[in-house]
């Protein structure tokens, strides 16, 4: 991995140099309109029992439904919608099996999410649909006074990111992207080590989404929206279309939008090697799937921050290798990395013995000592309900906790927009042969109002505190 990383950085730097000293490409930045108010630190009055509607009860939506159903004193499931009746039947059967105390209304029409958003007995709309529906549902929900959360990514379009930011600011409703990777035990422990000075100040981070998707793309199921499409007649210069699992934890480690911000991005991509081979193997040499161009095997995106720090992101869904989010963090007092492929443990090295990794036993002890209080608070539920190692449970229950107690959420609309904007920014940079492209400032200059990530909580004496 280290050799690959070094060669990747050299290639990316070479592309940047060849592009020359040019001004970064800029996407339009709309002005904040009268009546819109900043969402930094936004909170609403405590909602002691959050009334929830779930749009899309497939894999993730159903898992969320199960988790919320376990806490009827803190949340009430009011409605669920899906285009596939069998998924609604599965949800109904499950709720009956646990004797769920509330009545849940089920909807199966393509536009029934509008009926749900228009109801006056719902506080939160939980969107677990394909990404093309996130923006219309989220905006319609906020227009009708609902808070809204969506699965990743928020959207693929910078223009739509601005629409969501403007809607949240206009209607003063929470609009949060459900980035679960923030809530892994490792990601939160690293954040804790940064906050308490164990790792020192972050300088450079790396992360990625490296996930071979052949099993999804070649699965013949009627509800498989990831299924392989026919190849393009011309080469594809795609960027990083799924950046949030990588950038989410890194952004919190590096206080992005909270004292620092991502300023420019340079990106390059490989050709399409592996998926073309896989299509030929699966469909045959003479089929239409074997004649054309697929998505590049790897995209590399290098980001510079306002404070002169750097982030390197990987994106690969065709490479034939184990799953990895490839986290690495270099800080002034130490180094940590974790591939998260279930084959390795986190690694750490600290000054002054930074040439040597801690032993596995010391890593285990360190993780126990440095477990983030937020993760520790939900640890029992995380073990019970799981969800990507428990981080889905921590994410959903933490969301519920903040709404129940009237606290600001851990992520806001600016985070979701900033992290999702990497999609279009990276694509543009690839089209410009690796030239720099500016990342929009969705806070409109307010990124420096906060100096660090703030996780609010209520202590045992009922006082509001911040981790």
Would you write up a description of this structure?
With 467 residues, the chain is α/β, with parallel strands linked by helices. It folds into two domains: 2-20 and 182-466, Dihydrodipicolinate Reductase, domain 2 (2-Layer Sandwich), CATH 3.30.360.10; 50-179, NAD(P)-binding Rossmann-like Domain (Rossmann fold, 3-Layer(aba) Sandwich). It has 15 helices and 16 strands. The strands form three sheets. An eight-stranded mixed sheet has the order 13-12-11-7-10-9-8-14, with helices on both faces. A six-stranded parallel sheet has the order 3-2-1-4-5-6, sandwiched between helices. Helix 2 links the parallel strand 1 (50-55) and strand 2. Helix 4 packs parallel to helix 5 (134-143), helix 5 runs parallel beside helix 6 and helix 13 crosses helix 14 (391-405).
Could you give a short description of this structure?
The chain has 467 residues and is of the alpha/beta class. It has helices spanning 2-19, 59-69, 85-97, 112-118, 134-143, 158-171, 185-195, 214-217, 244-253, 274-283, 360-369, 373-377, 379-385, 391-405, 413-431; strands spanning 50-55, 75-81, 105-107, 124-127, 147-150, 175-177, 202-210, 262-269, 299-305, 310-316, 327-331, 334-338, 347-350, 437-438, 456-458, 464-466.
């Amino acid at each position: 991995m280290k050799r690959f990383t070094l060669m990747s950085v050299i290639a990316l730097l070479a592309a940047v140099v060849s592009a020359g000293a040019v001004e970064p490409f800029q996407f339009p930045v709309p002005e904040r309109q009268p009546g819109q108010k900043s969402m930094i630190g936004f909170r609403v009055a405590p909602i002691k029992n959050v009334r929830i509607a779930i749009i899309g009860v497939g894999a993730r939506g159903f898992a969320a439904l199960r988790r919320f159903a376990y806490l009827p004193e803190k949340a009430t499931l009011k409605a669920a919608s899906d285009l596939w009746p069998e998924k609604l039947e599965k949800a109904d059967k499950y709720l009956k099996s646990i004797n769920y105390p509330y009545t849940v209304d089920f909807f199966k029409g393509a536009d029934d999410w509008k009926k749900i958003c228009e109801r006056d007995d719902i506080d939160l709309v939980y969107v677990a649909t394909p990404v093309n529906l996130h923006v219309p549902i989220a905006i319609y929900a906020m227009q009708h006074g609902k808070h809204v959360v969506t699965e990743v990514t928020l959207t693929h379009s910078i223009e739509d990111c601005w629409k969501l930011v403007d809607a949240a600011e206009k209607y003063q409703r929470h609009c949060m992207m459900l980035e679960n990777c923030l809530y892994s035990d490792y990601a939160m422990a690293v954040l804790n080590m940064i906050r308490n000075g164990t790792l020192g100040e972050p300088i450079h981070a790396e992360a990625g989404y490296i996930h071979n998707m052949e099993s999804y793309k070649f699965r013949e199921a009627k509800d498989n929206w990831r299924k392989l499409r026919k190849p393009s007649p011309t080469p594809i210069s795609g960027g990083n279309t799924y950046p949030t699992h990588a950038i989410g934890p890194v952004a919190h480690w590096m206080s992005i939008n909270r004292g620092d911000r991502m300023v420019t991005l340079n990106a390059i991509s490989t050709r399409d090697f592996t998926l073309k081979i896989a299509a030929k193997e699966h469909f045959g040499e003479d089929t239409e799937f074997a004649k054309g161009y697929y998505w590049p095997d790897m995209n590399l995106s290098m980001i510079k921050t306002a404070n002169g720090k750097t982030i390197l992101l990987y994106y690969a869904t065709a490479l034939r290798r184990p799953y990895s989010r490839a986290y690495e963090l270099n800080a002034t007092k130490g180094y940590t990395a974790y591939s998260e492929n279930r084959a390795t443990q986190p690694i750490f090295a600290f000054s002054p013995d930074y040439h040597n990794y801690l032993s596995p036993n010391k890593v285990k002890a360190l993780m126990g000592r440095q477990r983030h209080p937020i993760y520790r608070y939900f640890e029992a539920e995380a073990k019970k309900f799981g969800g990507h190692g428990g981080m889905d449970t921590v994410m959903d229950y933490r969301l519920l906790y903040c709404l129940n107690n009237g606290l600001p959420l851990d992520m806001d609309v600016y985070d979701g927009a900033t992290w999702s904007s990497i999609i279009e920014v990276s694509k543009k940079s690839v089209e410009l042969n690796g030239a720099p492209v500016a990342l929009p400032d969705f806070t409109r200059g307010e990124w420096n109002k906060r100096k660090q990530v703030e996780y609010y909580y209520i202590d045992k004496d009922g006082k509001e505190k911040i981790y």
